């Protein structure tokens, strides 16, 4: 091992430093060696050329190197490539500074590099000590990656709660207020109002209640999904029947939006292993999006393509499309790529994350291609099942 200063020299120095302090006059070298060995943090010493001359057990555990492997190597072996030159200059500059041992800086956040090649977040402090007229650097480093992961998870949970609060306070309150207002207008309004007028208001109340119900259902689904509880009960399901049913139920929406809705189905019967209700919900989400984001005069087409072990579903529209910078985020919950639709009726940015959850719960995959101004195609696969004759 190439060491300019042997391990013990550093330990002696530590002891000498302690001897200068009257309180610690009698502390033996072994005590320091023992303390450094059991420290959970990495304690590393470098010689004046920045070669590793001391590497405690904490450092071995954190970096994955044995002391014998890194002894004599330059400190760079413990740093990600991109920080190496900056770090060397930083330490050299510190070494050139005058004065006796002083703290190079408070604990600083840095990135470490494990033997496995994994980078990790760390907090480190480094100190310069003069031994026989030469600089030795002592560094104490703490692996904070677990703490950071916990902090990230906490931040995400808080963000999730805030998003949920936003949905509840805005998207649920609006229809709830409409229900309250309309019900009051019926109860306290003109007793001579026509039955037709009252029925109109009751119809809007029912629409608002349906909207609240659908949103609550989506919120529950996305919560289940994230907790890993979204379960599906796949049984053999006839694709033609399910697609036709979806088209029938979404026909009025397409008609109201002036969008032509059609499907191309294979002649032979095609059966997938799927939870029928969830497949219906999935198609409704995707076809619903296609209709919603396609202006009047456009087309939405559904195609079903049998593959070897899967069936591929394809929903294509000639709508507004999605900007390239938005594409990677459309499956994130609460993400809405189109500003014009934000805050619109039952539009919470939950349809695609739920759709992905449903597809993945079936062992399938879902992906999306889109071009701004031209249209969007969403594809997903479901496992094929032998026809149930
Ligand atoms: N076919 C499409 N054409 C254009 N943009 C789309 C299409 N499908 C999804 N998007 C974009 O992706 C975003 C997320 O879709 P998602 O279905 O998750 O939410 P949403 O439709 O806005 O609300 P929700 O589904 O909860 O009613 C949409 O807001 C829209 O910006
Ligand atoms: Mg949607």
Structure description:
The chain is an alpha+beta fold and 389 residues long. The protein has 3 domains: 7-143, Beta-Lactamase (2-Layer Sandwich), CATH 3.30.450; 149-227, Signal transduction histidine kinase, dimerisation/phosphotransfer (DHp) domain (Helix Hairpins, Orthogonal Bundle); 235-383, Heat Shock Protein 90. It is 44% helix and 21% strand. It has 10 helices and 12 strands. The protein has helices spanning 7-20, 29-38, 57-63, 67-70, 84-96, 145-188, 195-227, 239-256, 276-292, 351-361; strands at residues 42-46, 52-55, 108-113, 119-131, 134-143, 235-238, 260-264, 271-274, 299-306, 310-317, 366-371, 375-383. The protein has a 5-stranded antiparallel beta sheet with strand order 2-1-5-4-3. Strand 4 and strand 5 (134-143) form a beta hairpin. The longest helix is centred in the middle third of the chain and has 44 residues, at 145-188. Residues 285, 288-289, 351 line the site of magnesium ion.
Helix and strand succession?
A: HHEEHHHEEEHHEHEEHEEHEE
CATH architecture of the largest domain: 2-Layer Sandwich
CATH topology of the largest domain: Heat Shock Protein 90
Mean pLDDT: 85
Task: Give me the secondary-structure category.
Answer: alpha+beta
State the CATH class of the largest domain: Alpha Beta
Q: What characteristic shape results from the CA principal axes?
A: elongated
Distance N terminus to C terminus? 75 Å
Largest sheet: 5 strands, antiparallel
**Unreliable segments of 5+ consecutive residues:** 1-23, 99-103
Helix tally equals 10
Structural domains: how many? 3
Number of strands: 12
**Beta-strand fraction estimate:** 15-25%
Helix content, binned percent: 40-55%
Q: Which strand order do you get reading across the main beta sheet?
A: 2-1-5-4-3
In CATH, the homologous superfamily of the largest domain goes by the name Histidine kinase-like ATPase, C-terminal domain
Each distinct ligand? adenosine-5'-triphosphate, magnesium ion
């Amino acid at each position: 091992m190439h060491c300019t200063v042997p391990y013990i020299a550093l330990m002696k120095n530590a002891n000498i430093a302690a001897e200068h302090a009257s309180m610690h006059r009698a502390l033996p070298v072994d005590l320091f060696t023992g303390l450094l060995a059991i420290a959970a943090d990495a304690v590393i010493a470098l010689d004046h050329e920045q070669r590793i001359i001391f590497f405690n057990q904490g450092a071995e555990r954190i970096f994955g190197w044995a002391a014998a492997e890194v002894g004599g190597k330059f400190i760079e072996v413990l740093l990600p490539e991109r920080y190496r030159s900056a770090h060397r200059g930083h330490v050299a500059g510190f070494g050139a500074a005058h004065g006796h041992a002083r703290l190079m800086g408070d604990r600083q956040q840095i990135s470490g590099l494990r033997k496995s090649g994994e980078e990790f977040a760390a907090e480190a402090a480094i100190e310069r000590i003069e031994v026989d007229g030469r600089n030795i650097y002592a560094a104490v480093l703490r692996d904070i990656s677990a703490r950071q992961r916990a902090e990230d998870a906490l931040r995400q949970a808080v963000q999730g709660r805030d998003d949920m609060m936003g949905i509840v306070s805005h998207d649920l309150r609006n229809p709830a207020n409409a229900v309250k207002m309309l019900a009051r207008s019926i109860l306290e309004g003109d007793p001579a109002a026509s039955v037709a007028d009252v029925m109109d208001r009751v119809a809007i109340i029912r629409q608002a209640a349906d909207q609240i119900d659908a949103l609550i259902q989506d919120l529950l689904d996305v919560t289940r999904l994230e907790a890993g509880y979204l379960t599906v009960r796949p049984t053999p399901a006839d694709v033609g029947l399910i697609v036709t049913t979806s088209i029938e139920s979404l026909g009025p929406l397409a008609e109201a939006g002036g969008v032509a809705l059609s499907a191309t189905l294979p002649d032979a019967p095609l059966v997938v292993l799927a939870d029928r209700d969830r497949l219906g919900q999935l198609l409704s989400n995707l076809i619903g999006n296609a209709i919603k984001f396609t202006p009047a005069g456009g087309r939405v087409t559904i195609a079903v393509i049998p593959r070897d072990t899967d069936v591929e579903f394809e929903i294509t529209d000639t709508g507004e499309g999605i900007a390239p910078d938005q594409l990677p985020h459309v499956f994130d919950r609460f993400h809405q790529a189109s500003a014009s639709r934000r805050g619109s009726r039952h539009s919470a940015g939950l349809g695609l994350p739920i759709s992905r959850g449903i597809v993945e719960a079936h062992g399938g995959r879902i992906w999306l291609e889109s071009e701004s101004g031209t249209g969007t195609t969403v594809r997903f696969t479901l496992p094929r099942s032998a026809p149930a004759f």
